[in-house]
Amino acid sequence: MVVDLDGSLLRGDTLHESIVANLRHPLVIAAAVVALLTSGKAAMKRRLAQTGRVEVALLPANAAVLSLMEARKGDGGQVFLATGADSAIAESVAERFPSIDAVFASDGSTNLTSHAKATALTAEFGEGGFDYVGNSQADVEIWRRAHTSYLATTDRSAAAPGWAGRDLEVLADPGPTRLRAWGRELRVHQSLKNTLLFLPLIAAHEFTNVFAVAATLAGFIAFTLMASSVYLLNDVLDVNLDRVHRRKKSRPVAAGWIDPLHALAGSLVLAVAALTLGFVIGLGFALVLVGYAVLTLSYSLWLKRITLVDVVTLAMLYMIRIVAGAVVTGITLSFWFTGVTLFLFLSLAFVKRYAELHSANGSSRRLPGRGYSGDDVHAILALGVASGMASTVLMAIYIQSDAVSRLYPAPVVLWLVIPVLFLWIGNLWIKAGRGQMHDDPVIFALRDPSSLVIGAVVLLLFVVASMPVTAELFGRIASVR
């Protein structure tokens, strides 16, 4: 039996994986392009494979194809790998899967695909002397010369396509639907974080201003597009780290349900759409959006590997959304409001890192792709709780500011926010310590029932403080005394 590699034994394409693995090395990409233009596709594959950056052991495999290979081997048959991938990668795959007896692959001059592969296999085994597992129209000629033909697919409802030219046995390794996979990859639920753009609008009591609400909504859409673009790029750049992560390995790019080059193209399209909308909204907002994109990209590439710098960057990524909301509406952020939110976001960023360290179960080894080890968990805990308490203290000072007095007829009611905020921050850290924090802390807070109740109480307190009747009531109570 002969098995194809890209899209058959493996869910993905090793050429695309090679390109992605070298994205941080532009000189290698440039050399590969030169090789393609001067010597052809096989030479390009050889140039990329020579870097050895593709983690073959981590590439997701098609379970149905793997089962067939092992069954054939168990019955005393031979299994061969025939692929257009470079021989260096093909040999690494053969080492990973012991059921493979020998390899046919591209050698730097011959690109072993389609007719070239069919010719090589026929010369080796004869017409009809082999069974073949393939996945695309490039395999049609090989299927025609095979004894039994198999179609490898990740589509649970797939049937033999008409272009195959013959009956095929389907080997399905069913994954999520394309729509569901892209929905997960774009992290649609993470758009909840972009509701922070509405915070200046709410804090300034401008939520009845139709123009301001419409502008903020447009800004929300632009940030959501840009955030999804960055998520795609981040998952492409960190695909190997995600594949060894307990939870992130199920992300569609890491799991092989979405091709990394397709994700890269999607990232570019979304970024262009976000910037176009950003400039339509206004130059100031567009510059903030560009700043967000640059900071996020810097975080993905290297800042998240630097101790404490990563936490400050995360806090700034939360904060920049509030700044964007202020810019798009023309609202000026007060000093104390900025201080409260900044320290609160620092605490949330520390929660995110603490949760990751806590999940390491006390291991002293370094977290993959991070600047921390398990030994840092106590320092992170102290810094995070201190930041949260600092935000509570600043909130108390903010309540006494002139800005609050102008907006709220009964600011004394807002003092009740202090114990409620303390309760929420403490609850967040206790849950993180119990290992119950498995998501971005902002998303967790927007989904956690207790956080939602606390948020509703805080909102109610602000509403009560903003009502003139509350001030009159307190005035009457004071006069009675």
TrEMBL record:
**What keywords appear on the UniProt entry?**
Membrane, Transmembrane, Transmembrane helix
Membrane topology note:
Multi-pass membrane protein
Q: Which CDD domains match?
A: PT_UbiA_2
Q: Which Gene3D superfamilies match?
A: HAD superfamily/HAD-like, UbiA prenyltransferase
Give the coiled coil ranges. none
Which compartment or compartments is the protein found in?
Answer: Membrane
Q: What's one GO-annotated cellular component?
A: plasma membrane
GO terms for molecular function, please?
A: transferase activity, transferring alkyl or aryl (other than methyl) groups
The family database entries (SUPFAM superfamilies) matched by this protein are listed as:
HAD-like
Gene Ontology terms: biological process: glycolipid biosynthetic process
Major place of residence: membrane
Span of the secretion signal? none
Instruction: Tell whether Mitochondrion is among the UniProt keywords.
Output: no
Transmembrane regions: 210-233, 268-295, 334-355, 376-400, 412-430, 451-471
One protein family per Pfam: UbiA
Q: This chain belongs to which protein, by name?
A: Prenyltransferase
What organism does the record attribute this protein to? Agromyces aureus
According to the entry, what is the taxonomic lineage of the organism?
Bacteria, Bacillati, Actinomycetota, Actinomycetes, Micrococcales
